[in-house]
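Task: encode each sequence below as structure tokens.

Item 1
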Amino acid sequence: MRTLNRHCQHTVCESAVSVSIITPLQMKLARTALGLGVRELAAAADVAPSTVQRFESGKGDMHSRTLDKVQRTLEDGGVIFIGPDADGGPGVRLKA
């Protein structure tokens, strides 16, 4: 499991596109890529585990501030969120 740190926020690397709103699938992919469980991500982002689980399952939305906290936590952990472009839909990748 990767440790989460707070040294970068909303970083754009190489050709990656900064995404302001992430999808439930992107959140789940990012969490999984970092080796985090729902509870671990929720604790790191200071949100309720049920909030993360509900959003990832598509059964509910998140307030924009809450979603931003979760996104920053995942980005600080080493994930880059990629917006949709001519080559495909939204996605995630790990920082080099």
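Item 2
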Amino acid sequence: MSESAYDADVLVVGGGIVGLSTAYALSRAAPGTRVTVLEKETGPARHQTGRNSGVIHSGVYYRPGSLKADFAVRGAAEMVKFCAEYDIAHAVTGKLIVATDRAELPRLHALVQRGRENGIPVRELGPAQIAEYEPQVRGLAGIHVGTTGVCDFAAVAAQLAQASGADIRYGAEVTHIDRRADRGVAVRTTDGRVLRARVLVNCAGLYCDRVARLAGDDPGMRIVPFRGEYYELTRPELVRGLVYPVPDPAFPFLGVHLTRGIDGSVHLGPNAVPALAREGYAWSALRPSELAATLAWPGSWRIARRHWRYGAGELRRSLSKEAFTAAVRRLLPAVTADDLRPTAAGVRAQAVLRDGTLADDFLFHESPRLVHVLNAPSPAATASLPIGREVARRALAALD
């Protein structure tokens, strides 16, 4: 095919922060590359990007040498610089990770070691030092991580879209993909339009496994959606910054934590319960076909058998405000159920392998003319700039 037969050099499916960062990186790595972004919603960042806690993660949790560790540490610094360059609201606040039970102390000490291996400044704290940072927080011991911050990731995504110079098409849900290894990729969208490109990049988040299968690839995983429910604190003066419990390393979830956002409000959460739809932001949001697909995946049942006790606790906190309050009170004893007001939930796109393994690192897959991003949950927003460069590198290699 001649160059004029292509509508773009690279088609990016997904207008969240990873897809838009990829478009931005392509424009900088190879000026003149024609990039089109297809997003099914009417604007950018309507799902994971726009519904998270807004935290710029330091990278303290992630296994040294992993993509998460590398990209989060670099991404945090780059995100602060990007926000400053484009005058996007942000602040480097630092955060506390607090142990409230003696059984958590070995895990807290392991985080200190992990943080230092990742090159992150970590300060160990006793109870009195915890109170210096957060007078209302109680704990046996804690650590302070200085490079954590907060920002408006939806504003970051919008700026990436503008700065990329890409052709951004909203309301363009992909319904069909025809891939010819010797020619390129043709995509049909819901409005019946067909676009042709030399390479397709799949950054579809909650639907990335579906897009991979539309393109004829077996991703070897499925997205199992987990809803994260939040409350807003009606007495925000109780919390100065960011306060986290010590996470259980068996799970990719950080537990109920306290987050003072860039607007001054304080959010409590999230928990992690299975969602009944990929965009299941409430229990009432049920899509039978999506739920059936989740239940048909062998990995879903293996997760349930392996982690039913953990899941039962999360479900209880979802159904009971008192139980959720009790989880918050472990860190913030002064809080009462009356201080908690429900606010918007998010859904995490968690890649689950056939054997029930929860993918714990960013996951990419390549095939002729295609680059797939198959697992990019938190800290993907923090790490979006280096992720975008990595995906752009793979896409440009596919062009060659």
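Check on item 2: The chain is about 30% helix and 30% strand. The first helix runs from residue 17 to 29.
End of task.
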